[in-house]
Design a protein that fits this description.
single chain; alpha+beta; OB fold (Dihydrolipoamide Acetyltransferase, E2P); GMP Synthetase, Chain A, domain 3; 3 domains; 5-stranded antiparallel sheet; 3-stranded mixed sheet; elongated; RNA-binding; transcription termination
């Protein structure tokens, strides 16, 4: 009997392990302080607190779309972990809504997400006749709006990936306008981004969110400065350099006078 139960558990595990990294639809059973329990036919999946959207209410017996993040073969049977906050869920939703993403014509390169609030998605294509951003957004924004609705109003920024890091970083900071991107010579994954003074707040975003998501999307540490701030720092550096240069000249003059006096004494 024990072997029969083990064989049954193995069959169920093999069946549900195929759904790992995929979207499935289940029925909410109940919720406690740790998990939301979702029925997926033969198994009961669990959704931890970090995998729950902060602006969602989970009502028993309601249907819900979830992302299968992990399947474990536990002693008491398969344990399925699901999520609504994983970047993988957003990728699968785009594959469902955008045929060109599903078939690989348009590729999702990176996703940065603060679930329930805002996400940035970078896309690219090798087809010169296709606008990857417009394709993902859809006519009149219909495709991306369907995804926004599924995620209860999570805002989406779709930006074009670029193999030029400066252009990619500028795209990632959309909707802000970028004047210049200056890379740190001591850290190849860090940069300073210069924006117009009136765009500084927009570039940084509410509670720093726009800059934070752009950094996560591109993999760069991003320091944002206004044009006036950058100009002031440049002027200060120039003055300091000139002052140091004057000090060196004074030292040289003193040294020359000393040498001359020594020569005269001889």
């Amino acid at each position: 009997m024990q072997r029969v139960r083990e064989a049954e558990r193995e069959i169920v595990f093999n069946e549900y392990s195929k759904y790992e990294d995929e979207l499935v639809t289940g029925t909410i059973e109940r919720q406690d302080t740790r998990f939301v329990y979702v029925s997926l036919d033969k198994v009961e999946a669990v959704m931890g607190v970090r995998d729950q959207m902060p602006n969602e209410v989970y009502r028993p017996q309601s249907r819900i779309k979830v992302y299968v993040s992990k399947v474990e073969n536990a002693t008491k049977g398969p344990q399925v972990f699901v999520s609504r906050t994983e970047p993988g869920m957003l990728k699968r939703l785009f594959e469902q809504e955008v045929p060109e993403i599903y078939d690989g014509t348009v590729e999702i390169v990176s996703i940065a997400r603060e679930a329930g609030d805002r996400a940035k998605v970078s896309v690219r294509t090798n087809n010169a006749d296709i606008d990857p951003v417009g394709t993902a957004v859809g006519p009149k924004g219909q495709r991306v709006q369907t995804i926004v609705n599924e995620l209860n109003g999570e805002n989406m920024d779709i930006v074009e990936w670029d193999d030029d890091d400066a252009r990619y970083i500028a795209n990632a900071l959309n909707p802000a306008e970028v004047v210049d991107v200056i890379f740190d010579p001591d850290n190849e994954r860090a940069c300073t981004v210069i924006v117009p003074d009136y765009q500084l707040s927009l570039a940084i975003g509410k509670r720093g969110q726009n800059a934070r998501l752009a950094a996560k999307l591109t993999g760069f540490k991003i320091d944002i400065k206004s044009e006036s701030e950058a100009a002031a720092e440049m002027n200060s550096a120039t003055e300091e350099f000139n002052d140091n240069g004057a000090d060196v000249d004074s030292d040289n003059e003193t040294l020359n006078e000393t040498d001359t006096d020594s020569t005269n004494e001889e």
